[in-house]
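Q: Could you write out the predicted structure for this multi-component system? I'm mainly interested in how the pieces pack against one another.
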Amino acid sequence: MQLAKVIGDVVVTRKDDNLSGIALLVIQPIDAQGAPAGRTLVAVDAVGAGVGETVFFVRGKEASFPFYPTEVPTDAGIVGIVDHWDLG
Amino acid sequence: MTLARVVGTVVATHKHRKFDGAKLLLVQPITLDDQPRGTTLLAVDSVGAGVHEKVLIVIEGRAAGEALGRKGAPVDAAVIGIVDSVDVSE
């Protein structure tokens, strides 16, 4: 998983049926210091996250697991909203 | 599997239910000579690792799910060992 900031959402009317009703958010991965790390991407949202929130997301087929048994065609999914993180 | 250094802990009250009770660690993948390699990742902890420790992680969904011991968990990385030492000849 990786930390990320939710920076936007995507509206897609015509899409795979298995994406119906699922929010698609634009996220910017961030590093442990909170700085942008790598390219922005679009992720399905499994936890009700909103723009401006810090989240963590999972990559790969596992991103579809929260929607089981629906086989959601995704490769990234938000699975948690971060309260805070502490560096040692 | 990849060597990594635990650099922090993450608190997330609102998360997918399959994460309930799991410890989330911020880990920095490292090279054999302990240099950071790539970006910091979040991994579930299955061995009781702590900040500053050198660990072994998997970055793959099925393996991470098995480490967590839960089927169908939306995870892609897990700490699976605490490294005592690494010896490389050559």
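A: Regarding packing and overall arrangement: Strands of chain B lie at 2-11, 14-15, 23-29, 41-45, 54-58, 78-82.
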